[in-house]
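**User:**
My hope is that you can spare some time for a protein that puzzles me. This is the protein in question:
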Amino acid sequence: MAYEIIFPETGNIVEVRLSGALSFETFRDIHVELYLGPEWRTGMNLLAILEQGADVSAIDSKVLRTAFKAELERLTEIRGPDFKVAWVAEDDYNLPLLRLWQSMPFVSGVFDIEIFNSRDAGRKWLEEFEADWPEFRRQA
């Protein structure tokens, strides 16, 4: 499997670990399982980790501007307000694609996105926003 989704028992940070060769279709499948599944609730944020060796070479600026843009528009209402994503690139060669996505004008204002090189740094940033959703401190 190219990805693993880990929903928290408490808190509002969902972790997605991505590995291997990734394409738009991989992300579309993740979105269906993540946002349209029974465990997703408004107020959750995402810690997305491109693991060591993850290959995003099938995704370029054209795919980001077309397929990913359409997917973003489709999912905005489902994810809920104040949505935050911490992207972690364990390999530096994946950073340019993440920065390109972050810089897309249609991403700005739809959700907050930050890029990190460690899981701990990304999680620490997302934990700043857990107090905004106290209902997530109770056992799911």
Summary: Helices lie at 24-35, 61-79, 95-103, 119-127. The two ends are 26 Å apart (CA to CA).
